[in-house]
Amino acid sequence: MNSTTGLSLRRKICVFTGTRADYGLLNGLMHEIAGSDDLCLQLLVTGSHLCGSFGMTVREIEADGFHIDKTVEILMASDSPTATSKAVGLGMIGYSEAWAELSPDIVVILGDRFEAMAGAMAAVIAGVPIAHIHGGETTEGAIDEAFRHSITKMAFMHFTSTDRYRERVIQMGEDPRKVFSVGAPGLDRLDRPDLLRTRSEFETEIEFKLAERAVLVTYHPETLDHEASEKRFAEILRALESFRDISIIFTYPNADPDGQIIIEMILQFVARHPDRAKAYASLGQRLYFSALHHMDGVIGNSSSGIIEAPSFDIGTIDIGDRQKGRVRAASVINCDANHQQISSAIQRILSVDFKNGLKAVTNPYRKANTAKAICQVLKTESIEGAPRKSFHDIPVSTND
User: Fold this and answer.
1) CA neighbor of 269 nearest in space, from 253, 294, 248, 297
2) Structural domain span for residue 67
3) pTM (2 d.p.)
4) CA of 236: how far to CAs of 148, 232, 252, 299, in Å?
5) What is the pLDDT of residues 290-326, one digit of tens each?
6) Within this chain, do residues 27 and 158 fall inside the same structural domain, yes or no?
7) Which of 131, 153, 249, 303 has its CA 20 to 30 A from that of 242?
């Protein structure tokens, strides 16, 4: 779909993707860049995309027709904090070589993960300006919080998902002229024509028969509290045990420390309940959005429950502190990792009264034509002198 050959006069935009999650959010923007007469799309693929235990999702990128300019393998066999730190080191080596080889004009990095942090550090050292998406947000229960804000300080331009997050990026000292509130890019493709709108089509595709009611479960480790992952996820499974008339679709956690513990617990649960539960390493964006059309709710602590799910008129149960601090729609319920609280929350999102109120819910992350807005800035924003920038001080009144 894209190639740098013969396109030297176009501004080269290298999109960095390290997980199925950020690729799903970047997919629409990548199509927009690839279709532009003024831009040339480059693509660097890394992280869990290249790992079989996480679904080898690089194949999904290739199936979508994108040319991959560079792959960088960084994941270790272990999911320990030490292994994650080593992956960052490997990333720095691989990404620095990639930026030297590809020589992009701008690197687009989304979010807050350790892969993105390493990619951003290598870009700053290489003198390549960074366009950062989803800055200014907060996830108080994850190490990603520190990574996100660090990438913000390394970035040359910023695309925030809400006006509140734009204010926070400016509060961090970034130039208001370089901070654009555009909405969440992943929401641009909610109405993609290839979604499976009928339940029978969806069931055929996933090879699983759904009960009348169904929920989607994605839970990631709270990486600031390593010892609690197993205990907290056990509380979720204990709550789900009591809802024997609902189907459960699990998707694996990201490649975070202690993620393997959660995967093993999912597989054990599915083995005990093969008639009503099934697990997927990755559904991919098309199947994931199709799933949201047929679910009665989303359970876990994934950002998708906060950002995407409200646009599908379903409830979200956000468990624990991983997403604490994010702007959220009225359809999102927060509770502790306690089986009684989770059970009460499940009963609530399945209730007729709750479902009747969902039509009035507004998704604060959704704006029209987000990818087009980002693409326009990437085309026209001056990058002369980048990545050098000045700290923007907010005027403070004094009572001297």
Assistant:
1) 248
2) 11-183+367-380
3) 0.85
4) 28, 7, 14, 9
5) 999 999 999 999 999 999 999 999 999 999 988 888 9
6) yes
7) 303
